[in-house]
Amino acid sequence: MAECERASGIIGVDIGGTKCALVKADAEGRVEREVRFGTTDVSGTLANIYAAVSELEPGASPVFGIACGGPLDAERGVILSPPNLPGWDGIAIVSELESRFGGRGYLMNDANACALAEWQFGAGRGTRNMVYLTHGTGMGAGLILDGRLYEGTTGDAGEVGHVRLAPEGPVGYGKAGSFEGFCSGGGLSRLAEGRIAGHGRLSAKELAELANAGNAEALAVWEESGRYLGRALSLLIDILNPEVIVLGSLYMRSGRLLESAMREELERETLAGPLRACRIVAAELGESTGVMSAIAVARYRMALTS
């Protein structure tokens, strides 16, 4: 982290569809100050980001790590119309921050950024081969392979939600029967449609509440999702042979509803040696994931250039 130490500080910028958070951190990733605000229109949110950077006193040579949902052109530092950020069409966030405040900036999609955060600070600490799954509203992955983030030829590695697990099924990532369709929050909601007596469309949270209360139909939906989760994880384990798979949002909150069916499928489908060597755990960073992801981006990119 030599360049981070020469820099005046890390500024982490987490841009979300409903809220943004900016932090100032030292080279070890320790948070010193934090600013949060709601995401509004494009110009208003950008103005708040620039004001927050000034408030954090970035110094003469800050290192910016920016985590944001895709699509992005990470190499050029441009945000390209993410679905959760309407109107953010071709926003050159990196060059804007660099021109206003100096230093260097690095942009990364949120799945890869979260993977770096869990690897540096969370459940993947000390590993060389780790898979992080967002397991939230959608299903994406960040891949740490041989001690480096694997981004792929076009920067699109880890789009596991697009993998088809069955000929038919709930639609996710534009594909029926996909991993995202069966196992994401949105997919669970679609999987449950018409199956829970006396209820219309249910969110994943509502479905978990019913299952935790003993509703047999809701429990059956979670069991089915768990089977497909196990099937997808078996593919990742057989192909990538990771030390740990870290599962985000849904697994953190409702893993026990998925666990039994997931483990049965893993035992049925996965090579025994790689399965024994792989831990499957919930993400550790919780509510701090966004800001720690942005910090992790800065630390990782600067380490590569030092």
Classify the helix fraction into a percent range.
40-55%
Terminal CA distance: 7 Å
- How many structural units, i.e. domains? 2
Per CATH, the architecture of the largest domain is 2-Layer Sandwich
| Number of distinct beta strands | 15
Structural class: alpha/beta
Mean pLDDT over the full residue set = 94
| CATH hierarchy, class of the largest domain | Alpha Beta
Low-confidence stretches: 1-5
Shape: globular
Biggest β-sheet description:
5 strands, mixed
CATH superfamily of the largest domain: ATPase, nucleotide binding domain
Helix segment tally = 11
Radius of gyration: 20 Å
Give me the CATH fold name of the largest domain: Nucleotidyltransferase, domain 5
Give the DSSP E fraction (strand runs of 2 or more residues): 15-25%
Q: Helix and strand string, N-terminal first? A: HEEEHEEEEHEHEEEEEHHHHEHHEH
Spatial order of the strands forming the largest sheet: 3-2-1-4-8
Please give a quick description of this structure.
The chain is an alpha/beta fold and 306 residues long.
Question: What's the topology here?
Answer:
Layout lengths: L1 H5 L2 E7 L3 E7 L5 E8 L3 H14 L6 E7 L3 E2 L4 E3 L8 E3 L1 H9 L2 E6 H12 L8 E4 L7 E5 L2 E3 L20 E2 L2 E2 L2 H5 L1 H7 L12 H9 L3 H25 L3 E4 L1 H21 L2 H6 L1 E4 L6 H17 L1
Parallel strand pairs: 1-4, 4-8, 9-14, 14-15
Antiparallel strand pairs: 1-2, 2-3, 5-6, 6-7, 9-10, 10-11, 12-13
